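Sequence dictates fold. Below is an illustrative record:

_____
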Amino acid sequence: MEKVKSIKLLGFPLPGFLVLFAGVMAIALSGGMLGNMVGALGFAMIWGAFIGWIGDRIPIWNNWLGGGMFLTCLATGALSTFHILPDSVVETLNSFNNTVGFLDLYILVLITGAILSIDRKLLLKAFAGFIPAILGSIAVSFLFTAAAALILGEDPLLGLVNVALPIMGGGNGAGCIPMSKMWGEMTGNAPESWYAPAFAVMSLGNLAAVVSAAFLDRMGQKYPSLTGNGTMMKRKSITGADAPTEIKIGIGEYASGFALGLCLFIFADFYASKLSIINHAGLGFTIHKFAFMVIFAAILNALGLIPAEIRAGARGMQTFFTKYMSLPLMVTVGIGTDLTEFAGAFTFANVVMIIACVVGAVAGAVLVGVLFGFYPVEIAITAGLDMAGGGGAGDVQILGASHRMELMSFAQISSRIGGAIMLVIASAMFGMLNT
């Protein structure tokens, strides 16, 4: 009994939390949940905290299969897939994540805190070595996928087009959707004929990446020399007065760091949609606003234009969101996950090629990344698995499963800049099919 009394969820003693849980779930199941961000966030926090707590205590699952973060995503997906929640509640949660922009808010806070807390002397060196690691990830993932196709008696080019492109393409909105449009235009076929199976393959690839992230986290615990435990490069960041995490700050600095992140996102969105030469050059692909936000934040940090107190505030907001908003985010991501999509892609050939692609992504990232001084586990997760994940939502799942949310800025480079590179590759490969 004493042990039960000591359990706390979201800071509440377990009995008190269960009262809140029962009340919120009863209202949601009845269809009476508030249809705005208050209802969505309230449900996400309570449901996410409960399922996350369970997931972190299931043997094997907690250490090897993503723990509470991934279970929260799957369990929430089941609520919508099997119509346990009313459609109105599902729509509210979907709207909160997409239309209202909760996912954008979460990512922009993590990007701001992550970029501004990196030692300026390491920043350019880290990014300069990261793009080659992404290219290595793409090259080896393609090699492994083609090899698997050959072994299975499949056409290697079709294996690359139908498996490697969806998995490595940067998710759904930035990957599968524009690729399906290219497919339709270049082959004369209906875009949906490529999109539907590609989306299922992407989803399975994301699942494989999440499981692999949990495995890499566990491997890092067993072999500490392979990981920086959230630090990308083997050279330590500077310490002392300039380190933002060691500066004493108050609520005002948190507000400043938060406001800076919001403004950087607004500027990046405006630049991407209105000013970017690349995005308006008709090249067949565009650079995502999150990629520009990473660049803007990196420039400000590299030039030393942000006071240390504001950098510390941004880092503090990142810590808060990572600790308390990650599980609610997994709820809003999971509500849009159709578990039946996984079943349609579970052919033997697809599963083998998907695993080969994800393993190749990891191998390529590590082979190149270690040459630039990156820790194998961190570069495998960011330049490898985040390339193989399902875009921004996949980044959250992968970093959550590996307990490395602080690496969101590098994950976004993979999903956004790496995704743009994949659109160029997709255009060339679709053209090869049409010749």
